Amino acid sequence: MLVLGLDCASPDLIFDQFKDELPTLSRLAREGTWGKLRSSIPCITVPAWASMMSSRDPGVLGVYGFRNRRDYSYDALITADSSSIRVPRLWDILSDAGKTSIVVGAPQTYPVRPINGQMISDFLTPNTDAPFTYPAILKREVLNLVPDYRFDVREFRTADKANLLDSIHALTRAQTTVVKHLITSKPWDFFMFMNIGLDRLHHGFWRFHDPAHRFHEPSSPYRHVIRDYYRQMDALAADLIARAGDDALVLIVSDHGVSRMDGGICLNEWLWQNGWLVFKTPPPEGRLTRFEDCQIDWEKTRAWGNGGYYGRVFLNVRGREHAGTIAPEHYEATRDHLAAALQAIPGSMGEPLETKVFKPEAIYQEVNNIPPDLLVYFGNLHWRAVGSVGHGRHFTFENDTGPDDANHAEDGMFILYDPHARAAGEQHGQQLMNIAPTLLDKFGLPIPREMQGRVIGA
Q1: How far apart are CA 331 and CA 254, in angstroms?
Q2: Which of 239, 406, 430, 451 is buried most deeply by CB count within 10 Å?
Q3: What mean pLDDT is predicted for residues 324-343?
Q4: Where are the domains of the chain?
């Protein structure tokens, strides 16, 4: 079983716009099962891949983004690395069943844990000085093959597009060199490589690709880099399939899709302007200030937020937060009032936005650890949440963490090709938690009752 994960891969590009230029993926779809794959909420890399590989939703996992509240204090945040995932993922279950796995780059695998097989950790790995392989001796083999092995392009929000493109290609060369070596030099039953380069490319270059983007540049020399990278991934899929052999089951899958970025909703600025957030000393207008650097009057504040591709909003509840202002008996009414107000925030021209607001307990089977009180998709994910203040208005066209052309879309994609099964064609209504039980079913292994997904096509 060969899995090629393409972070942020778009079903619209693969199944429609670039279809004729992706012969391998198009053949796999034609001869297999394919379709859109609804992501987790939130539809971001962490926790989407962990949700896919464990068939548990983010609430069960207790992971709501890259950074999560450690406790109910105001500033204690933790990074959601592998230690945050306390349920078995697919390779853990396969290990227990005696199957051998090779896993490269799957999110939330750093720090590495033992598996029956080989593992190279993900983009959260700080550098090659860290213990990034299991077994440990594999690290020497990787660095002998690629001395400058890379895990990510961390500075992808940059105006220096030439250097960014070079870095993405260097990342891709390094990782695919190692992947091609491992797939033919080590024994395996399950092989998974997750490519983060496509996501970084979308965020850095989407304006050059999408005519609907606010800052589209149709004559840019970068207008075809996204198309060319999809072609490169198609060629990689062909190469890996050839190395895996004709009998391999193949899955091409993404955790979420991509959408243009129209701008940002200044979440904390709006909360401040509307009386939910109070500063001891208001930040100066026209000078952007990180929320973490502001002096908050917590004894007068009712709500605050975190920025990102979606908004996370927290209420200041008496008896929960140490300077809480909202009485517990008023919590639900206050939350409903704030949710309605967030949904009504207009766009830059006063137009209504298709904003969605979620309550954790309404969308998750369980709610573990400390979730946001509200999760917000501004403008149907064409607008991100901006956490800084000092913008002077509730929206901005410039991202406060650096240039970023794209947000995520709720639908990713999947193509499942089984050489021993009939083509089942397009499948509608699939969700990423269906992937793990489907692959276990293909292995002929029992599906743990705790898994929330179902077998695709069953």
Answers
A1: 37
A2: 406
A3: 98
A4: 2-260+408-442, 263-403
Structure tokens that stand for 330 in this block: 């008023």
String of DSSP letters for 121-164: --TT---TTS--EESTTHHHHHHHH-TT--S--S--S-S-HHHH
For the chain, percent of residues with pLDDT exceeding 70: 100
* Model confidence pLDDT, tens digit, residues 56-70: 999 999 999 999 999
Per DSSP, the three-state class of 434 is helix
Contact yes or no for 448/93 (Cβ under 8 A):
yes
Which residue has 């270059």 as its token pair?
205
Phi first, then psi: give them for residue 408, nearest 5 degrees: -95, 160
Burial 120-145 (b: 16+ CB within 10 A, else e): bbbbbbeebeeebbbeeebbebbeee
What is the value of pTM for the model shown? Answer: 0.97
Start-to-end C-alpha separation, the chain: 19
Burial of 329 (0-12, 13-18, 19+ CB in 10 A): exposed
How many Å apart are CA 114 and CA 94, to the nearest integer? 12
CA distance 121 to 159: 29
Give the strand pairing for 190-195 and 2-6: parallel
The tokens for 410 are 């709720």
Architecture of domain 2-260+408-442: 3-Layer(aba) Sandwich (3.40)
The CA distance from 284 to 281, in Å, is 9
DSSP percent split of the chain into helix, strand, coil, nearest 5: 35, 20, 45
183-222, pLDDT tens digit by residue?
999 999 999 999 999 999 999 999 999 999 999 999 999 9
**One-letter identity of residue 238:** A
Q: What is the mean pLDDT of residues 2-30?
A: 98
